[in-house]
Amino acid sequence: MERKVLIIGASGQIGTELVLTLRKRIGSNNVVASDLKPLAKDSKLFNGPFEILDVLDKEVLLAIVKKHEINEVYLLAALLSATAEENPMFAWKLNMEGLFNVLNLAKDNFIKKIFWPSSIAVFGPSSPKNNTPQQTVMEPTTVYGISKLAGERWCEYYFNKYGVDVRSIRYPGLISFGSKPGGGTTDYAVDIFYKAKKGQKFDCFLNKDTALPMMYMEDAINATLDLMDAKSSSLSVRSSYNISALSFTPEQLFDNICHYFPKFEIEYNPDFRQTIANSWPASINDDVARNDWGWKSYFDLDKLCSVMIKNI
Ligand code: NAD
Ligand code: SER
Question: What is the set of domains in the chain, with CATH numbers?
Answer without folding.
Answer: 5-171+219-226 (3.40.50.720), 173-214+244-311 (3.90.25)
